[in-house]
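Memo to structure team: turn this sequence into structure tokens by end of day. - J.P.
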Amino acid sequence: MSRGNRWARSLILLVILPHLCIEIYCSKPDPFAAKKKRMSEKVRQMFYHGYDNYMMHAFPHDELKPLTKTFTNSLSELGNLKLEHLSEKYNGSALTLIESLSSLAILGNHTEFEKGVLWLSENLTFDVDARVNLFECNIRVLGGLVSAHILATDSTNRLTKGTYKSQLLNLATELGERFLPAFNTPTGLPYAWINLKYGVMENETTETSTSGCGSLILEMGALSRLTGDPRFEFAALRALRKLWSMRSSLNLLGTILDVETGEWIEYSSGIGAGVDSFYEYVLKAHLLFGREEMWRMFQLAYIAVQKYFRYGTWYHDSDMRTGRATYWQLTSLQAFWPGLQVLVGDVTAANSSHREFYHVWQKFGLLPERYLLDHQMVHPTERYYPLRPELSESTFYLYQATKDPWYLEVGEAIVDSLNLHTRVEGGFASVRDVTTMELEDHQHSFFLSET
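Reply from structure team:
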């Protein structure tokens, strides 16, 4: 089968599978139908509470500050939760709107989706003096534009009534072209930071993470398939292949590396921050593009994780060279792992690991950024919860795979916790410390698109 046919097949499956599942399960009475409807409406109201406050107090800037009902132009500091060095020359790119477009489409709000698409078409530019994190800008901005373009051109949605002329795809292409200079390194591994206007800055750091250079293939690959321009997929694929060639004899990758020398800087590794999305992207690249190379890569990596990181029902970090445990910790970013295990068919293992994350959530009411397993305590300096989506996502995958009503209970508990601890008059606030529930004046853009 040709590459183009595989791409078309993947998109068709993504569109029709939900409808097939609905038909199958609608043939039987659903004893939880009333509960699902009630919870669905609660989540819908939560979305609009965050979205309406963003549009009222922060748009067209990047993100909402819900406690003070103001804004932050945070695209230039994504990846740094402290937002320490915001550029005075940069005034925002409507980041939260870009990320929210797909949610608006899923919620059936055609009018607001159209308004957002048209505003971005007429006002958004990437010719801005802003130094951005390549990984964060890729998954949030490029991913948001490509996703919204696919939804806008889906004939079953009729979202834009003839007014859409691929403007979002054009913007995505412009952004993708501004990414390409980051890949001009001796190794093909991209710089972690790039200025959208001027490219790679002089004396730019050469350090990046495994996630940073191994989690670009989905968005940039999709951009190439949609435009017919192979440069984006080629750059991302070259970087991913180079990264994989740097694995140890145990098929493990480190966490931090140098893009110019191709040498590892941090040998400790795990399934959390700095590595997490590498595993996600190689599997999903196989599912979306039909790349058998990605499947072989994922199989070897997954087996290595289960052998060297897994300890009972949870996962610690290990040295990529020896497999010996380094850090005994559970981090909030690891909570994506059960969802990934569902996609690969390892549902029993997914259920076990999910319960460990949910146990910690129950202990505090939210999931702290880092929990020390060997001491059974939250990390002294990483007590925050920035409205992350990973546990919600894994809960959703496990319910879809098993139809076990227990996961509905977990979903309801997560929703109730978010409303209890993070909802304020001006939106939803991140939590600075889960032991005291002290809030932080920041509603991350991914909250409305992912959580």
